[in-house]
Amino acid sequence: MLNFDSIIIGSGVAGMTAAIYLKRANLNILLIEKNIPGGQINRSSRIENYPGFKEIDGPTLAMNVYEQVNNLNIQYQYDEVKEIIKQEDLFLVKTKSQEYLTKTIILATGRSAKELGIDKEKQLVGRGISFCALCDGFFYKEKEVAIVGGGNSALEEALYLSDICKKVTIILRSKKFRASEMFQDKIKEKTNIEVLYNTQIASLEEENDRLSGIILDNGDRLNVGGLFIYIGSNPDSEVAKNLNVTTDNGYIIVDEKMKTNVNGVFACGDVIKKDVYQLATSIGEGATASNSVISYLSGIK
Ligand SMILES: Cc1cc2nc3c(=O)[nH]c(=O)nc-3n(C[C@H](O)[C@H](O)[C@H](O)COP(=O)(O)OP(=O)(O)OC[C@H]3O[C@@H](n4cnc5c(N)ncnc54)[C@H](O)[C@@H]3O)c2cc1C
To answer: Are 133 and 223 in the same domain?
Structure first.
């Protein structure tokens, strides 16, 4: 069985950063990712607060980091980690198709999009329901769409969709946005964005296995074939469950060195409990976690 110094689970920006630092320290590492490299940031059409880039889209930024990973010949496995088992001083990492042994683990599994939790939602994902305006917006060129959510991500993606679609209706549960004033001002300038405050989706209509309309809680019907959901995220810490890593609402608790309560297990990025869920913080935590792994492996705990 392959045996590593460290296995990093998740190749979002946090995991890839940790991998870059560990590989440059000449450690024998494996980076495992169940989806595409870059994680959540692939859902963002425009980033304006990441230092070094006045403006960049998420997939380009993700690919830039992935290119660095590739250039360093970091061992990369497209697979899903299902279970981690502690075996004396080592960890057994079980994926869908393989098993590996490692001295340390970095959990960089991030977060995934929250669902509305209503009938037909799961069935219509990819058939009118999307969690990524950048990926799917083009399919609704010059059509009417709706977006649900009131944070920065929802408004940013509503602005993006308004340049492609005929009309964008923002469905907002509360009476005001959580997003920054800057995004709210930009929304007001758009003539093809309508905001429905104090409104929720009651049900989804389907025709030929595609979304055909949305019924609101006030009884109104929106005749849209596209619904984009941006209502926040949930931490993906399930994989650490049987290690007995301490969590709070699913978020992994770490100290300032990114150590969990389990010796040899570190975590970084959006999966940890913290105040700021952004690229800059996740990348910094990836670097810190890697440094802690290096110290741990050299016996300095
Ligand atoms: C729409 C949107 C817009 C945003 N805009 C900005 C912005 O403008 N500026 C900013 O700074 N931040 C922004 N963010 C936040 C930023 O994207 C995140 O803070 C950052 O990407 C978190 O990175 P991460 O590596 O911690 O986690 P993630 O990006 O969530 O990556 C985790 C990775 O782990 C993988 N994974 C999970 N479980 C497993 C498993 N069991 N096995 C294998 N792989 C697994 C996932 O597939 C994923 O690729 C935005 C986020 C969204 C959703």
So the answer is: yes
